[in-house]
Design goal:
With 135 residues, this protein is mainly α. It is built from six helices and no strands.
Amino acid sequence: MKPMFRKTKKKRSSNEEIKPFDWNADVVAFACGELGLRLEEFYEMPWCEFLIKSYAYNRMQEEKLRHTRLVAYSAQIGSHLDPKKLPRSIDQFMKIGSDNNSGKNSDNPNKNLIFDDMKELFRKRMSEYKNQVIN
């Protein structure tokens, strides 16, 4: 069976190409591996049922990750570390799922600009330092 490919696209933010979609490697392997379906079950299953199972699998994985986060957070809080260095909340300790992307740019929209300015200042100072060391 010849794998189905979609056209590769360039990402807007970088020059990396998006990996081509391979039906066997992506969908069939997910159904038989992670979902635990037999190949016959997968091929006889309606697409909407597969989407529901995929959604349920992702939800269960996220719930396992939340449990792991709770255990790790409890271990860090109970280890008698400096209270000033501890995260203030469990969400600040480790973001999960949709929470992970929501807080990136909401704190400071100019964060990347500031970071780029600091990198440029660092490079300038480092080149000055190297010139002084060489001379």
